[in-house]
Structures are given as structure tokens and as C-alpha cells.
TrEMBL record:
Annotated GO MF terms: nuclear receptor activity; RNA polymerase II cis-regulatory region sequence-specific DNA binding; zinc ion binding
Biased composition annotated in UniProt, kind: Polar residues: 81-97
Lineage: Eukaryota, Metazoa, Spiralia, Gnathifera, Rotifera
Keyword DNA-binding attached: yes
Similarity-based family: Belongs to the nuclear hormone receptor family. NR1 subfamily.
All residue ranges annotated as the Nuclear receptor domain in the record: 129-204
Record key words, sorted: DNA-binding, Metal-binding, Nucleus, Receptor, Transcription, Transcription regulation, Zinc, Zinc-finger
Annotated stretches, region: Disordered: 81-124, 207-228
Name of the protein in question: Nuclear receptor
NR LBD domain residues: 254-523
GO cellular component assignments: nucleus
GO biological process: one example: hormone-mediated signaling pathway
Compositional bias ranges of the Basic and acidic residues kind: 110-122, 215-227
Native source organism of the sequence: Brachionus plicatilis
Pfam families: Hormone_recep, zf-C4
Length: 527
């Protein structure tokens, strides 16, 4: 970088004196956070592990046991009734509680206890659903949304079908257990509802009762047999809506996890987010880069223009090299990106680097009042004017960059959405110059991209949500369409930039550029 053919490069600070080329080189080198970072290459960056531990986000997930998500029924008076995540009292315990109110025949009690013990052993052996949530008897399955016995199932069905009106002889708070469940129909029916039995589910039942006069006693003592197919069908109908709710919640948690992960990476590794721009003192004191050439050393205007172009190109690569380290690190932190074959990771970073770099810095590609021209400002506060960009790159590319910047303003995207779009661009595979080595890399990259697009729609939906769903859908779809158009413009920028790079490889292959940016752009000499 010290062999500069005696050319001078100067940095302006309004009307400040010119700086010598060696000073400018020193300033550019100091833009690195660490002097030894310049020796790293893209393979080192992709292969190395992040030293600092990432912040972990913890969510309030549904409680699980044995891989099953537990959902407690909604109780109207939850504080007065049994917690659904604690065991229901056994029949023997219920007998002791009821003993003060009613004496039970000892022989009958003995038979019931023996039956209860036998049922418990049977439950353990057969892996049943447990005890009835209503009376504590052995449950035969999930009926109308609740684990219950045949007796309580039949009682609830008849009560609904016949529109029975019950009345409690006491205060409406009778304890319902196996031994006394027939004494107060009012409190038994009340407990059925409180435990979660659904009136609507009775309509799906295919078993109508024909004898209403003696069904209650007979149903309690001699449960009717149903075939397994009917039980499974009924359970599926009852739990179907619940499963949909659970699936939706789990899916949204996964989407939120992707959004949080990529938003954190973008905020930490992009110096051009709103928060980072506000904290950067250099951006309030911008410095325009200028190149001056000793004309006496050159014979023609073309030679002078070529040298000027080469030096501006070198300035650009030094400034962009600072962003390169952070962009490569960001790519590594895209959820799932590290699962792609390493050589394909490198190819994707090389193919999409310039587009991602432009999207990150686009908010600082704006018109400067003092110059009345568009300027591109870097993290260090150094700016390159529109005219200088036209010297470095083809004019068509610069014009497209300006047009894309104006279109970007209309989208009104926040930093989270910009971060997600950076991930979307990095995982795009259906563009020129993206030729991966493994078919699995295409499959995985497309999946990651689709997941990120889903996260983008979710983020946009939350931002635009109002009370009018139809209006929301229209606004969301319109913004998604506009973003798709924006991505096509970004893609075209990448194509034109690749053509420009080919010219640089031919014309300025001997020009020294920083190590990492040189490898990404596949240039000749690096340092």
C-alpha cells in the first residue's frame, strides 16, 4: 500500500488543508478495529467459532411432559376446584372426606375399595387415561373434551340432549366423588362443565338414548360399550381445534426465534442501523474523499483518468473492507446458514456480498446539502460523491443504485426488516453467478430463504395490523409485492457490479487491495 506511484490522495474536511497520501493510508489502516484483522481471509472467518457467547432469548413456552404439551382447561372458578395438573383424589380418600356426612355400609364399602384397587391395577397394566375428572372413577377415554368415566359421560350427554334442569337441595357446592355422584345431579352437571365438558360436542355424538326413565342408575353401574373407532373419532373431533392452536403457537414461536436471532445479529454487526448511526460521532463530521494527480508525470488525460479511477477504487476497497468482516460474520449467524457446505457458503457470500453491502449502507446513500449531490458515507465518516462513484463504477450501475435508493425510501422498512432481507439475499440461489457445488446446499438455502420470507411477512403483519382485517391483508400484500420489486432491483445491481468487477480484474489487476475484500471480489494482488 506504500507504493503509490507518487500519487496524492487527500481527505477534505470542509476547507481543511489537504492530507498527505501516507496519512490517508494510515487513516484507512486505523479503520480496522484490530491491526491483525487484515490478515484474515474469508475461509478463516467462516470456519472460526465466535468467541463471545451469544445472548440467549428465553421464551415462556407451554409446559411439557414426555414430549406432550399440557394445556389446562379454562375454569370459571379455578380457585375453588381441583388443579388439573395435580392427581385427582382416590376413591378411598374421597370416602374419608364424605364419612362425616353419610355412613356407608361396610360391606358395600369393602366391595367398592376392592373394585377401585382392581381398577387402579388395570389402569397401570393397560396404560389408560387415568381417573375421571368428575367423580374419580376409572376413566374410559376422553369424552366431550375431558377424561371421564362411562357414567359421567352418559349423564352429561343425557342432561344436554334432554335439556334437564337440576336443582341442588343444599347450597350448590356438593362434593362429587365416586360414592355420591348420583345424589346431587345439579352439582354433578355443574362439575362436568367446570372440568371442561363441552355442550357443543354432544351434537357430534352418534349414540342417542332411548330410555330416559332409568338411564341414570343403569348408566352409572353398567357402562355401555363403544367400539374403539367411535372413541378415537370423537377424541379427534374434540382435540382437533386445540391441536391447531398448539401448532400455530409453536410455529409462531419458531418464527419469532428467527426474527430475534437475525435482528440481534444485524444490530450488532451493522454500523448503519438507526441506533448505531445515532451513536456514531463520525457521521456528524463527514469528510469527502478526493484524489489529486501530479499531471506533470503523465502524458495524456486518459492516463490521468485511469490513475484517478484506480486510486478511487483503492479508497473504496479499503473503506468497504471494514464492512466485509462484519458482513461475513452476519452471514455465519443466519439461522441454518452454517449447515450449508463450507465451500458453498463462501460462494454465496462472494456472489451476494455487494448487494448485501448496498442494502446495509443504503440509508447513508443520500444527497448532501453542501454538495447538492448524492454521497455514499461509510462508518468512518468518509464520503464518496456521486461523480466519484461514476468514476469508480459504470454510470449505469450508479444510476440504478440511486433509483433503487429512492424506491427503498417508499418502502419505509425498519432495521429488523432490513436484517431479514439481508438474510434473504444471502440465501438466494436462482441468480446468475450462483453455482453451488452440492445439491443439498441448494435445498437447504431455499428452505432458509423461505423461512426468512415467512418471518418477514410475520414482522410486516404485526407492523401494519389494525382492526380491519381486509384492509390489513391488502396493505401487507401490497408491501410484499413492492419488496419483491425492490429485491429484483438489488439483483440487477449485483449483475452490473459483477460486470464492473470483470473490467477491474482486466485493467487494474496489479492494484493492491485489502486481503478480505480482494478475496471476495476475486482480485489479483492483496495485502
Amino acid at each position: 500500500m506504500n507504493d503509490l506511484n507518487s500519487n496524492l490522495i487527500h481527505v477534505y474536511k470542509s476547507a481543511d488543508p489537504l492530507m498527505q497520501m501516507s496519512q490517508m493510508d494510515h487513516n484507512f489502516e486505523n479503520l480496522n478495529h484490530s491491526n491483525n484483522e487484515i490478515d484474515l481471509n474469508i475461509l478463516d472467518l467462516i470456519g472460526q467459532e465466535t468467541k463471545e457467547e451469544k445472548s440467549q432469548y428465553k421464551y415462556l413456552l407451554p409446559k411439557t411432559t414426555n414430549g406432550q404439551i399440557l394445556i389446562a382447561p379454562n375454569h370459571s372458578q379455578a380457585n375453588h376446584f381441583t388443579n388439573q395438573f395435580t392427581p385427582v383424589q382416590s376413591p378411598s380418600e374421597a370416602q374419608s372426606q364424605d364419612k362425616s356426612k353419610k355412613k356407608v355400609d361396610r360391606s358395600k364399602k369393602t366391595k367398592l375399595e376392592q373394585k377401585s384397587k382392581s381398577d387402579v391395577r388395570s389402569d397401570s397394566a393397560q396404560g389408560s387415561v387415568g381417573l375421571c375428572k368428575i367423580c374419580g372413577d376409572r376413566a374410559s377415554g376422553y369424552h366431550y373434551g375431558v377424561a371421564s368415566c362411562e357414567g359421567c359421560k352418559g349423564f352429561f350427554r343425557r342432561s344436554i340432549q334432554k335439556k334437564m334442569q337440576y336443582k341442588c337441595m343444599k347450597e350448590g357446592n356438593c362434593v362429587i366423588v365416586l360414592l355420591n355422584r348420583n345424589r346431587c345431579q345439579h352439582c354433578r352437571f355443574k362439575k362436568c362443565l367446570e372440568m371442561g365438558m363441552s355442550r357443543e360436542c354432544v351434537r357430534f355424538s352418534n349414540n342417542s338414548e332411548s330410555n330416559a326413565s332409568n338411564d341414570t342408575e343403569k348408566g352409572d353401574r353398567e357402562p355401555k360399550k363403544e367400539n374403539n373407532t367411535q372413541i378415537v373419532d370423537e377424541a379427534n373431533k374434540i382435540t382437533n381445534s386445540t391441536h391447531k392452536i398448539i401448532d400455530t403457537a409453536v410455529k409462531q414461536l419458531a418464527i419469532c426465534d428467527r426474527i430475534l436471532s437475525i435482528a440481534q445479529s444485524h444490530q450488532n454487526l451493522c454500523p448503519y442501523t438507526k441506533i448505531n448511526r445515532e451513536k456514531n460521532v463520525y457521521l456528524s463530521n463527514k469528510k469527502l474523499i478526493s484524489v489529486q494527480v501530479d499531471r506533470n508525470k503523465f502524458r495524456s488525460e486518459k492516463e490521468i483518468m485511469d490513475v484517478t479511477k484506480e486510486e478511487l477504487w483503492r479508497c473504496f476497497t479499503v473503506l468497504a473492507n471494514q464492512d466485509a468482516f462484519k458482513i461475513v460474520e452476519f452471514a455465519k449467524q443466519i439461522p441454518g446458514f452454517d449447515q450449508i457446505f463450507q465451500n458453498d457458503q463462501i460462494l454465496m457470500i462472494k456472489s451476494h456480498f455487494f448487494k448485501v453491502w448496498f442494502l446495509r449502507i443504503v440509508n447513508l446513500f443520500c444527497e448532501e446539502e453542501s454538495l447538492k449531490k448524492m454521497c455514499l458515507t461509510f462508518e468512518s465518516g468518509h464520503s464518496i460523491s456521486e461523480d466519484q462513484l461514476c468514476t469508480i463504477f459504470d454510470e449505469n450501475l450508479v444510476t440504478l443504485m440511486i433509483d433503487t435508493r429512492k424506491y427503498f425510501n417508499q418502502l419505509n422498512l425498519n432495521d429488523i426488516e432490513i436484517g431479514i432481507l439481508c438474510g434473504v439475499i444471502f440465501t438466494t440461489t436462482n441468480e446468475p453467478f450462483v453455482n453451488l457445488n452440492h445439491e443439498e446446499s441448494y435445498t437447504l438455502a431455499n428452505k432458509i430463504r423461505n423461512d426468512l420470507l415467512e418471518a418477514l411477512r410475520f414482522e410486516i403483519s404485526n407492523k401494519l395490523k389494525t382492526s380491519d382485517n381486509d384492509k390489513d391483508d391488502g396493505a401487507i400484500n401490497n408491501l410484499i409485492d413492492n419488496i419483491d420489486t425492490f429485491l429484483k432491483k438489488i439483483s440487477l445491481i449485483g449483475v452490473l457490479h459483477s460486470e464492473n468487477l470483470q473490467n477491474y480484474r482486466t485493467s487494474f489487476n496489479s492494484s493492491k487491495v485489502p486481503n478480505l475484500i480482494g478475496e471476495i471480489f476475486e482480485l489479483g494482488k492483496v495485502y
